[in-house]
Amino acid sequence: MFSFFKKKPAPVDTPASPPTTATPAAPVPAVQAAITPAAAEPERRSWVDKLRGGLRKTGSSIAQVFTGTQIDEALYEELESALLMADAGVKATEFLLDDLRRRVKEARATDPSQVKALLAAAVAGLLRPLEKPLRVGEHAPTVMMVVGVNGAGKTTSIGKLTRHLADSGQKVLLAAADTFRAAAREQLAVWAERADVPRQAGSVEIVSQADGDPAAVSFDAVVAGKARGCDVVIADTAGRLPTQLHLMEELKKIRRVIAKAQEGAPHEVLLVIDGNTGQNALAQVKAFDDALGLTGLIVTKLDGTAKGGMLAAIARERAIPVYFIGVGEKLEDLQTFNAREFAQALLE
After folding, report:
1. Which of 127, 189, 238, 326 could connect to 334 by a Cys-Cys bridge, CB 3.0–4.6 Å?
2. How far apart are CA 276 and CA 283, in angstroms?
3. Is the dihedral of CA 46, 48, 51, 56 positive or negative?
């Protein structure tokens, strides 16, 4: 699920170094073993089935295009309408149709069922640049800032991500920087409790302030994370619409303050987007990216009425890596993004 870097053990001739820098590197191989694809294969297959079920409405609409017997302009016109209805957007739809025509010609396809398989390959090719792992361990700590609109699932996604990190032996500190929402700190605390795994090397802590300034909370969390030898610090921020300019300025302030607490931080700025928002998701990606410089996306709620084509629109117009996609409320429902799996689930 993650790409890890080995920690460097503290030099033996530096007595002034704080104890936290002397963390042995031994747990890292165990972490790598814990995330090997073979160990999680049955769980992954079950998750892919859930994804396929969540995208079935879109898939069936596109599949109807290939029920005819001819490959002609009528087929491409119907496919264009189906892709637009799936929220792929104009630019991605035009790109996919052009790519598909080329593939059909090169393969000398004569049956519509062949065209469907070629479309799946075209979609996977378009989405492949989004398929990148979240890298943890290069910095001490790795600082992540999580943003998004209200209701997208930020805090829940942070909880699931934290549990995965803790299971992999990472020491995580959470910053409850969403001080606007009354129950935000409590919700994050509940997830922190669920994420703590004493049997593993990982652990979870939380930094919060009642009615505190979000930037101050984030600053304190990064400083505390460095002092306590944490591997990852995650700042949960308040939900806001990109049109709420004064609140977007607050996010920019949090980003600046985090950079003051640790040079080069935040190392990851993650946007959580609701998979049901369609083309509005692309607008959110553009707005938050312009304001903060996004490094990755987490796409949630692909188990409902999500059409799925919005990822094609994002890939064509703002190709920011999709680190994780979610298909439900359970911990295991948040998994890494795989372009080929997604394309096949979308078109089945």
Report:
1. 326
2. 13
3. negative
Tokens 């409902």, located at residue: 304
pLDDT digits (tens, 9 = 90+) for 195-214: 554 434 456 777 777 667 88
Burial class (CB in 10 A: 0-12, 13-18, 19+), 296: buried
Beta bridge partners of 2: 134
Q: Which residue in the block uniquely carries the two structure tokens 């959470």?
A: 174
Residue with tokens 């989004």: 130
Pairing of β 296-300 and β 322-326 = parallel
Token pair recorded at residue 15: 């007595």
Q: Are 328 and 157 in contact (CB under 8 A)?
A: no
Nearest-5° Cα angle at 305, 303 to 307: 95
Residue at 267: amino acid letter: H
Residue type for 212, please? G
Q: Calculate mean pLDDT across residues 245-251.
A: 84
pTM exceeding 0.90:
no
Helix (H) or strand (E) holding 175: strand 171-176
Alpha helices in the chain (DSSP H): 27-34, 41-54, 56-63, 73-85, 90-107, 112-127, 154-167, 184-195, 214-227, 245-261, 279-292, 310-317, 339-347
Contact between residue 175 and residue 141 where contact means Cβ atoms under 8 Å apart? no
Contact 205, 145 (CB under 8 A): no
